[in-house]
Write a structure and sequence with these properties.
Strand content of chain B: under 5%
Shape of chain B: flat
Number of domains of chain B: 1
CATH class of chain B: Mainly Alpha
CATH class of chain A: Mainly Alpha
CATH architecture of chain A: Orthogonal Bundle
Helix content of chain B: over 70%
Number of strands of chain A: 0
Largest interface: A-B, 88 and 93 residues
Largest sheet of chain B: none
CATH superfamily of chain B: MetI-like
Strand content of chain A: under 5%
Oligomer: heterodimer
Structural class of chain B: mainly alpha
Order of helices and strands of chain A: HHHHHHHHHHHHH
CATH topology of chain B: MetI-like fold
Distance between the termini of chain A: 38 Å
Structural class of chain A: mainly alpha
Number of helices of chain A: 13
Chain lengths: 252, 303
Amino acid sequence: MRSLARWTALVLTAALFLLPFAVLVAKGWPALADVFTYKEIPFARSLLNSAVVAIAQTVGQVVLCSLAGYGLARIPYRHAAKVLYAVVATLMVPTAVTFVPSFVVVSSLGWLSDLRGLVVPGLFSAVNVFLFRQYFLDFPVPLEEAGRLDGLSRWGVYWRVVVPNSTAFLAAIAVIDFIGSWNQFLWPLVIAQDSSTWTVQVALSGLLTAQNPKTTLLFAAATVSILPIILVFTVLQRYLVRGISETGLGGQ
Amino acid sequence: MRAIVKRANSRNTLVFWLFVGPFAIGLLLFTYVPITWSAYLSMFDARNTVTPTEFVGLANYIDILTDRAFLDSIGTFTVFAAFIVPTTVVLSLALALLVNQVTWARAFFRSVYFLPFACSYVVASLVWKMSLFPGVDSGIANTVLGWFGADPEAWIGTVEPPLYWVVLVTARLWLQLGFYMLLFIAALQRIPTHLYEAAWIDGASTGWQSFRHITLPGLRGALVAVLTLNLINAYQAFDEFYNILGDARGYPPFARPPLVYLYYTSLGSGGQDLGRGSAGAVVLALVIALATLLSGRVFRRPT
């Protein structure tokens, strides 16, 4: 009897969670092809921009932050603790609150309506550095020492020993970064002022908040926009779940 | 010997900066410089310029702290947090317990509840605004109300009582419950099963007793994490407010959380007042830093 109640709850909740996706696809399906020929909003271009931004940001973040995390975890340096402190201190100021000052810096660099302005400021994630450091602190030292004995440099140890043995963790961080980057809205809204640099989220928002939004087209565009992310999600879910369970990263 | 140690040290220094340097430069340029610059701008008349000349002291701060709309935005955040935090904690814990108890198809249900995590706030806003709560009779929420004989509601257009909160809160719940559920599931699986066996032997007859005395204490860390993350995220809410409540005519005068307020003050179409926007950013950043420090103190384990 209790088991029946439990299953009813599970199935009903699952149906409720799937309903918005069902609505999206059901309404968008008929106009899927029209999305790319629609003139008023450069939708195909925005998809391409999103892909460029998300891929560049994911690769850049993983490379820069894993390097920094490894350096902080493993390389003896007199002031390493101070550097770590300077990194961790920024965690108290969430990036969304600093969008006004960051906008100021990016506009003085001349990066408004420029993909560089969308990609570069987001590369330096203090959270990622912190998590990579924690992870590398637990990396088995004997493995690294074996590499040193074989004559590898610090860099050699990192590249030939540490990275190949950390692919699951790297993948977990990469998936979370990719989803976050593809779905981000406020920063591209502020930076991509010219429609040629819109990301897909900004384009969708433009359609949604327009006068008399074209409902079918809107749903079709939204369906197209979630396809890549659902694909990434499904294929790499194992890493995603592990990454979140172990680190708590990805809260927005 | 000393010379060797010294050489090894300076070599390590070089290697350290080769690893950390690229990130450190970026952090300096895109986090420390903006914060400093913003503190500087906040004391100038910086309308439509990033290199202002007119020093105004604390005028921007006085302006913003006496601005009714800014104080309202803090009020909006408080109401939003009062709705979203308890519902998220209870429902994500319930989902975690539900999923954790089944043995068959567990991964399937976990995936389904977690799937909205992949969806953007913009897409969710679209579905909520145009299809679930559009304020017309054919909307899904109104259809369901109709089954029970209730009158249709205008939802996002209804200010008295403020039914737009139903739309905003359910959208966020759908998007984030799965994520917090994962945090709870991870914590549940770290509770050793022998504790439950021992409790059973000791005569903890009901599920409630073992939940109260074993599960809940074991979830303490996860509860603090869920609460803190959830609050910080609610504080930074922007996407669904902007997309659900905003339209071609602009944004309504009510329900503006802090970031929506900041966006319209400093970057909106009504003229860019970066001095005032910066003062707002500084105030909001201070509030959150203070809250983080305080919550760290309050939630610190007593042991």
